């Protein structure tokens, strides 16, 4: 036997290698190096890099334009004809990419796509010798074709989709959504309605046909978002609005967890039908989100069937009364989360009544309205709140609010002060904050170094501190924050969401020192990270 042996290379099964690759951080620059390992690694890494392309480019107009150019190169002849023949817009000559990158997409929003198309169109017009007038029809045609490309290419990857009427017309969707393209991976669907769906119109396919085709393909939704877009010319049509199609798609789901309903200013009886239709999801539904809803003429009695409902969010809603609360008193569910944002309430004691009904089980609560009645009810009925989101207005009830807060074992506090001189606010905040607090999100009009000293006089040991502030942080403020962070054991995140556009060299030096003690430091305005700001300076 030869004394020298060839060392065998241990090779992992492909499935194991794929799972390992999927665990790699998606934002890491090292991913690009892995593209050149071998063909298997190339395909696996490409699928990672192109899962969320719109989010990765972070609203960069140049990168947006390049991204759309790549997708335009992936269009088939029908999609190109929709732009060039149907809308008389000549696309530039674009070489077809080596891969159809659209097939790796897992989710996108219409707003992201629309913004990117606009950036590409603007960039393309600049390259022309004779500048053309901006034509919104051209932009819509390009958006519509890329939207078609995404659905055509993604029968197994697409997790999120928006049904928006401007995008669905002009296509033979029955051909696209054939039996082999079932969109079985779709988990989030957003449906826009201008009026009730019906079989007419001058388009190749009506709204109702597309909706019914989509309905037969999407039965595994976890989140369904429905919103009405109302135009003045359509107001007469909306008087005849019917919720039948919405109820059908709810009933078709196997395990719907989150339902978001928006922009129902009328049609209380139809909203009642939708809520009653939730009986088909009584075991799976976990969260209800109501945005811009008028509850006048609407009954919530259908919610009594949703025994596993855990969260209800009311945002910019009106028409809620004590009768709605009395209806909910018959329900068997125990809420863990309850939020009231910018609520226009006929009876201000609606919030207090809801807290009386569900307070004992609540672990998360938020409101933009605080009255003495709400504070007293919360103090008595809500002993288990761990996450709290509130707004304090001037000095009203400040002492009562903080007396309530100090008796809670809070983990997260999101608090906004609308007072122009928040010195008393910071003094009370530092004195009364519970030592269990780990996450503090703070918004106010003015922050001084003395205010921060009052805040940090508390014995709390924060892990995350987020400032949503309209005032510039000066050097003295940063030094107070730095002194606090170096004495914290497990500090993980410092974020500034301010209007400040520039930091001085002295400020940046403090931020650089903070980064030595804090893994994540964000400055969320024009520049997203401290590293990007530091790149321009030599210390």
Automatic annotation (TrEMBL):
<protein>
    <recommendedName>
        <fullName>F-box domain-containing protein</fullName>
    </recommendedName>
</protein>
<dbReference type="InterPro" id="IPR032675">
    <property type="entry name" value="LRR_dom_sf"/>
</dbReference>
């Amino acid at each position: 036997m030869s004394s020298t042996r060839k060392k065998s290379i241990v090779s992992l099964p492909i499935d194991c290698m794929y799972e390992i690759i999927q665990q790699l951080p998606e934002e890491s620059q090292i991913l690009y190096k892995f593209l050149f390992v071998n063909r298997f690694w190339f395909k696996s890494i490409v699928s990672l890099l192109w899962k969320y392309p719109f989010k990765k480019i972070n609203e960069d107009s140049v990168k947006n334009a390049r991204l759309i150019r790549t997708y335009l190169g992936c269009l088939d002849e029908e999609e190109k004809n929709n732009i060039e023949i149907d809308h008389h817009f000549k696309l530039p000559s674009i070489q077809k990419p080596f891969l159809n990158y659209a097939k790796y997409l897992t989710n996108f929003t219409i707003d992201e796509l629309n913004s990117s198309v606009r950036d590409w169109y603007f960039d393309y017009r600049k390259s022309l010798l004779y500048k053309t007038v901006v034509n919104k029809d051209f932009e819509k045609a390009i958006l519509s074709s890329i939207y078609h490309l995404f659905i055509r290419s993604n029968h197994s990857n697409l997790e999120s989709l928006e049904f928006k009427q401007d995008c669905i017309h002009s296509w033979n969707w029955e051909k696209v959504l054939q039996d082999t393209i079932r969109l079985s991976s779709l988990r989030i669907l957003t449906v826009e309605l201008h009026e009730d769906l019906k079989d007419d119109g001058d388009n190749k396919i009506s709204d109702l046909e597309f909706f019914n085709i989509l309905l037969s393909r999407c039965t595994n939704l976890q989140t369904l978002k429905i919103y009405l877009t109302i135009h003045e010319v359509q107001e007469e049509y909306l008087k005849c609005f019917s919720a039948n199609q919405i109820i059908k798609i709810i009933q078709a789901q196997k395990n719907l967890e989150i339902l978001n309903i928006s922009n129902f200013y009328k049609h209380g009886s139809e909203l009642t039908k939708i809520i009653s239709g939730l009986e088909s999801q009584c075991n799976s539904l976990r969260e209800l989100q109501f945005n811009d809803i008028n509850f006048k003429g609407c009954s919530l009695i259908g919610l009594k069937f949703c025994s596993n409902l855990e969260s209800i969010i009311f945002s910019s809603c009106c028409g809620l009364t004590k009768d709605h609360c009395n209806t909910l008193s018959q329900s068997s569910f125990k809420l863990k989360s309850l939020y009231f944002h910018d609520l226009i309430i006929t009876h201000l004691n609606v919030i207090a009544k809801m807290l009386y009904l569900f307070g004992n089980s609540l672990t998360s609560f938020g409101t933009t309205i605080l009255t003495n009645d709400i504070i007293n009810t919360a103090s008595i009925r809500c002993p288990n709140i761990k996450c709290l989101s509130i707004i304090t207005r001037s000095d009203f009830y400040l002492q009562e609010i903080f007396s309530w807060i100090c008796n809670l074992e809070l983990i997260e506090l999101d608090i906004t002060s609308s007072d122009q001189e928040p010195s008393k606010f910071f003094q009370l905040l530092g004195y009364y904050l519970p030592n269990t607090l780990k996450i503090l999100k703070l918004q106010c009009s003015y922050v001084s170094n003395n205010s921060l000293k009052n805040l940090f006089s508390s014995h709390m040991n924060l892990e995350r501190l987020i400032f949503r502030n309209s005032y510039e942080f000066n050097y003295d403020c940063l030094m107070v924050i730095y002194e606090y962070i170096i004495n914290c054991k497990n500090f993980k995140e410092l974020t500034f969401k301010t209007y400040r556009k520039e930091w001085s060299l002295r400020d940046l030096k403090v931020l650089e020192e903070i980064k030595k003690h804090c893994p994540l430091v964000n400055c969320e305005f024009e520049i997203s990270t401290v590293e990007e700001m530091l790149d321009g300076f030599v210390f």
